[in-house]
Please model this.
Amino acid sequence: MKEIMIATQNKGKVKDFQLLFKKYDINVTSLLDLKEPIDDIEETGSTFEENAIIKAATIAEKFKIPVLADDSGLEIDALDGRPGVYSARYAGEEKDDQKNLHKVLDEMHDIADENRSARFVCVLAIVRPNQEPVVKRGTCEGKITRIPIGANGFGYDPIFQPIDTKLTMAQLNSDQKNEISHRGNALKKIEEWVKSI
Model:
């Protein structure tokens, strides 16, 4: 594998993957490098795994190169795994972080502290032409707080407190967050796979 395209327009994600794959002399491109923008890919899967594979496979088919895509979100045990694959659009199609986290807090208003367990999930899928997809899942276990705390991060970070810390994700600096994050954990598993090939 000499090159891989990352199915994202998020510069931060692209940078992370460039750092990882550079060690193995694998050239990284992303959707930011395309001359013409690609249409939004409909994520019709019912799991993070299905959605990541759909994204990667659609672009791999178009460009005939290996593609890495991710799908991630928040699973809350007391809400039967919601918001799950609908994390970004939980409160509506406009993808409003504040509305999403307030909807979660409203739904969990009566849930006791000991029953507020949750996890962030990140699934990375690599699809290479004519080969089985490679899928790796990373998680970060924690619980849902009663109010948003902290100004770092985005999404549900202000209401998610990882286990073994008294701080929310939004109170951690980026180094602390990368050390324990769901994406960091999934990246480690992808790196193990890259080493093995």
